[in-house]
């Protein structure tokens, strides 16, 4: 079984490499003429290929609950801040595919150096930061986050900062709560059990179902960052124990 999973994972990695080159090249060339949302959906086309490949090649499926907790197109440009559990690469690829609205990621600037992939995301409305310069990084998140949210963009952040192992919890940072408060934007917590199929720091994918649970928006008016983030943390971690109970026994 391990040998078969390894073979499938290698094929999946090759699928990603083969498909990213033409799509990323097209995005970089198209960025000369177009910006913003059209360019974003060009990148999502590649992400759809990735999620399709994970399902067909590696047997990684997913199911989502709570989509009705997100703003609909009929509600106009109402922004939200998505605060998600982070266990693997899967959710970073899957969320733009699952969401009907463009997402603005906050990520470390080193990702921009990845050939083709990094070149493409560097052309999008994203917030890339230098983690070694904490004050400068926060100022950039606050400034650009405010601007993108004013345009109706959904900003997405991973409060743990990095991927956590299945059944474990990282330290929740208050950056997402601070941004939500300064912009007056509700926080939508998300739990995702992706390590069940795609463990962190591994490209050995296992067949199975990844559960994604989207919580109700949490109002931020009159809240303090640490107290608000603790509420987000409590919801996410309790929901993780519900959707992936086996990991916490």
Order of helices and strands: HHEEHEHEHEHEEH
Instruction: Please state roughly what percent of the residues sit in beta strands, choosing from under 5%, 5-15%, 15-25%, 25-35%, 35-45% or over 45%.
Output: 5-15%
Distinct helical segment count: 7
- What topology, given as strand order, has the largest sheet? 1-7-6-2-5-3-4
Please state the overall shape, judged from the principal axes of the Cα atoms: globular
Counted up, domains total 1
How many β strands by DSSP?
A: 7
The CATH topology annotation reads as: Glycerol-3-phosphate (1)-acyltransferase
Radius of gyration, rounded?
Answer: 18 Å
Q: Ranges with pLDDT <50 over ≥5 residues?
A: none
> From the 3D coordinates, which CATH architecture would you assign?
3-Layer(aba) Sandwich
The biggest beta sheet is recorded as:
7 strands, mixed
**Average pLDDT for all residues:** 91
> N- to C-terminal separation?
24 Å
**Structural class of the secondary structure composition?**
alpha/beta
CATH C-level: Alpha Beta
Helix percentage range: 40-55%
Q: What are the key terms here?
A:
single chain; 249 residues; alpha/beta; Glycerol-3-phosphate (1)-acyltransferase; 7-stranded mixed sheet; 7 helices; 45% helix; globular
Structural notes for this entry:
By secondary structure, the protein is α/β, with parallel strands linked by helices. It has one domain: Glycerol-3-phosphate (1)-acyltransferase (3-Layer(aba) Sandwich), CATH 3.40.1130. It has seven helices and seven strands, in the order H-H-E-E-H-E-H-E-H-E-H-E-E-H. It has helices at 2-30, 37-58, 89-98, 117-121, 134-150, 175-183, 225-243; strands at 60-65, 81-84, 103-108, 127-129, 154-157, 187-192, 208-214. Strands 1-7-6-2-5-3-4 form a seven-stranded mixed sheet, sandwiched between helices. Helix 1 runs antiparallel to helix 2 (37-58), helix 5 (134-150) packs across helix 6 and helix 6 (175-183) crosses helix 7 (225-243). The longest helix is centred in the first third of the chain and has 29 residues, at 2-30. The radius of gyration is 18 Å and the shape is globular.
């Amino acid at each position: 079984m391990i040998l078969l999973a390894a073979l499938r994972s290698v094929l999946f990695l090759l699928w990603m490499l083969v498909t990213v080159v033409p799509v990323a090249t097209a995005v970089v060339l198209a960025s000369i003429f177009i910006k913003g949302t059209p360019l974003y959906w060009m990148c999502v086309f590649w992400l759809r290929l990735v999620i399709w490949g994970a399902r067909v090649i590696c047997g990684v499926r997913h199911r989502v609950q709570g989509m009705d907790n997100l703003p609909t197109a009929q509600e106009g440009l109402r922004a939200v801040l998505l605060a998600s559990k982070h266990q693997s690469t899967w959710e970073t690829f899957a969320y733009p595919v699952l969401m009907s609205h463009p997402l603005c990621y906050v990520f470390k600037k080193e990702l921009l150096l990845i050939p083709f992939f990094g070149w493409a995301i560097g052309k999008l409305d994203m917030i890339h930061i230098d983690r070694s310069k904490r004050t400068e990084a926060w100022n950039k998140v606050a400034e650009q986050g405010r601007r993108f949210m004013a345009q109706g963009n959904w900003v997405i952040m991973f409060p743990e900062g990095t991927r956590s192992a299945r059944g474990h919890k990282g330290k929740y940072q208050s950056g997402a709560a601070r941004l939500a408060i300064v912009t007056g934007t509700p926080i939508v917590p998300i739990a995702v059990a992706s390590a069940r199929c795609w463990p962190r720091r591994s490209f050995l994918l296992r067949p199975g179902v990844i559960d994604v649970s989207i919580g109700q928006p949490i109002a931020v008016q009159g809240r303090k960052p640490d107290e608000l983030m603790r509420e987000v943390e409590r919801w996410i971690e309790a929901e993780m124990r519900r959707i992936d109970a086996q990991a916490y026994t």
